[in-house]
Amino acid sequence: MTTRSDTLERWPSAGEESAAAGADAAAYMNPYLAGIGLGLVLLAAFVIMGRGLGASGGFNAIVAFLMNVVAPEHAKTREWLAGYFVGDASPLKEWLFFEIVGVFAGALISGLLARRVHVTVEKGPRVSVGVRLAMAFGGGMLMAVGAALARGCTSGQALTGGALLNLGSWGAMLMIFAGAYALAYFVRWEWR
Amino acid sequence: MTTPFFKYGMFGDETSLVIAFVIGIGFGFFLERAGFGSARKLVSQFYLNDLAVFKVMFTAIVTAMLGVTYLSWLGVLDLSLVYLSPTYVLPQLVGGLVLGFGFVVGGYCPGTSVAAFATGKLDGLVYLLGILAGTFVFAEAYPLVARFHGATSLGDTTIPQYFNLPYGLVVFAVVVIAVSGFWAAGLVERAFAEKAAKEGNQP
User: Fold this and answer.
1) How far is A3 from chain B (nearest CA, A)?
2) Which of A24, A175, B26, B81 is 20 to 30 Å from the Cα of B140, by its Cα?
3) In which band, very low, low, confident or very high, does the pLDDT at B41 lie, cut at 50, 70 and 90?
4) No. of H helices and E strands in chain B?
5) Domain parsing of chain A, residue ranges
6) Do B139 and A96 touch (CB under 8 A)?
7) For residue B173, what are the CA distances in angstroms to B112, B159, B180, B201?
8) Cβ–Cβ contacts within 10 Å for residue B194, how many?
9) Rounded to an integer, what distance in angstroms lies between the CA atom of residue B172 and that of residue A133?
10) Based on the structure, what is the number of domains in chain B?
């Protein structure tokens, strides 16, 4: 175990650039302005579509699609994915799948404009790339199971349901923060 | 009442997919603008030195909530036609907790991992593959958890409906909580910046 002073890089404060963003990268947007922008996008979704934003549902569609390619008979017996096999349409012909493709494009546009597109692995100074990637994979699996049980993730429940004062969404949102804070101490070696 | 446009049949399913892509661009753009394509920026929320996640999220919630409330009061938006995800108390509380674990362990949530991957973060890509793997496992294991997944159902309900409170009062309360939270977040960040400045000067 090394001592604290020689392993801790100074942890960036609010508004400072992430070390991985690169020296020439533009500063992040003021969080309140970004929040207003995000809120107006969400409001547009409500007014135009009558639904909010989401992300995990788009991943469900991808899994349904992949399972249907590899083992179509088996895929169609999966009760959890039944909603993606109605009629003959591809499971990818799904609103949230097209939305997350848009998320990719929008993030890429913003990143290019701010010179923040770099191939890198985000991690703290004390952890190896391999361990960080293993943690990312495990975290993604936990997220998927959590989102399946909660019927949506931070986008579909916390953000969308939060704005609609949805009871279950507010319950899920409080537990998301509770869970992350509860575990933060035990995984601090990964980040700082 | 003329909106939501889609529910009033102003365009069909094919067009709705184009709209999904365009709305997604706006979503991804502001996620990346805010710095949410970076795992270290996101998890800073849980180490209290940068509370941008809270600020962005609650500003967005308040903005959209006020917009929906006023448009509905003006008779422009029929709120009863906006999809409300049904409440299942226990699975949503447990799911939220597991989601929170996944957030701090992996550094992202599903939407932000897409923004991270788009800006070259390989950990974002691996996280995204983890989501696909986890979804596959859940789809296979669903019969085992189906009963729990459907337990403690309350149907479509909101905080004002469930607690029998006026809608406007709850909206006002959320605004007060958010603004108080923004003020408190500033205090916490300043305290951590001072602490970091002291430690940062040591070799």
Assistant:
1) 12
2) A175
3) very high
4) 8, 2
5) 29-118, 124-192
6) no
7) 28, 11, 11, 42
8) 11
9) 43
10) 2
